Amino acid sequence: MATEVEQHINLEVEGGIGWIRFNRPEKMNAIGALTRTQLAEAIKQAERDDAMRVVVLTGSGRAFCSGADVTEMAPGAGMRTPEDVGNVLRNEYMPMLMRLRTMPKPVIAAMNGPAVGIGASYALACDIRIATPEAYILEAFINIGLAPDGGVSWLLPRLAGTGIAYEMFFTGKPLQAVDAHRLGVINRIVPAERLEEEARDLANQLASQPRQAVAGAKRAVLHALTSTYEEAMEFESYLQEAQAASPEFAEGVQNFLARRAAKK
């Protein structure tokens, strides 16, 4: 008799919103091998399905994600050699995080609690973060003798500054929600009971915006992060030139002119 596979990741579509939910509350949503497989499939589906115009990533229980399941790194467990650790990062985590960061639709992290290690990488790879007061970001790799992973060495200095990133990496000190909000790492803090409502309201607002314009804005920001000012302006020119021929642009201009005429 076949054994029913546990669902470590849930994907639900609500209107134009795809909700990806870590679903191991008993382990604070730690990511093991099965979680990685299911999460990769959910992210791939969210990227490819045009019915999902916005994606929300969140957790079950009291944590967003407590990071990798360290029990699978113990001797005799799933990762048997140092090369196994590197290969999981390169071949499994990297493609998922790149999909989150570059998919042509907004991705919101609804941080219902701590985001730790690779869990923080997922939160930081999203475009917008909404968090509860109890949430925090923790890079505790130093405590197990490792450097940070999941692209956080690139993301965190750009979001919080190198000084904050270094202190977190060197000490394992958490970045509390209130400080992350002050630094601009988190967009807003809301009560726990309102988190999903706030995320849903924002997602609905973004889903109602012109699809190509939203995708273009995301592409422009990602390009600008690694380009010169001049290169960024040139890329913006390219994007607007391409979008100026779209039905979205024509409709937007007509609507703008109609609203202005109605105000006269």
Characteristics:
264 residues, alpha/beta, 2-enoyl-CoA Hydratase, Chain A, domain 1, Lyase 2-enoyl-coa Hydratase, Chain  A, domain 2, 2 domains, 6-stranded mixed beta sheet, 3-stranded mixed beta sheet, 10 helices, 49% helix
What does this structure look like?
The chain has ten helices and nine strands. It has a six-stranded mixed β-sheet, with helices on both faces. The chain has helices spanning 33-48, 82-102, 118-125, 152-160, 162-171, 177-183, 195-207, 211-224, 229-243, 247-263; strands at residues 9-14, 17-22, 54-59, 107-111, 115-116, 128-131, 136-138, 175-176, 188-189. It has 264 residues and is α/β, with parallel strands linked by helices. The chain folds into two domains: 9-207, 2-enoyl-CoA Hydratase, Chain A, domain 1 (Alpha-Beta Complex); 211-263, Orthogonal Bundle (Lyase 2-enoyl-coa Hydratase, Chain  A, domain 2). The radius of gyration is 20 Å and the shape is globular. Helix 1 packs parallel to helix 2 (82-102), helix 4 crosses helix 5 and helix 8 runs antiparallel to helix 9 (229-243). Helices cover 49% and strands 14% of the residues.
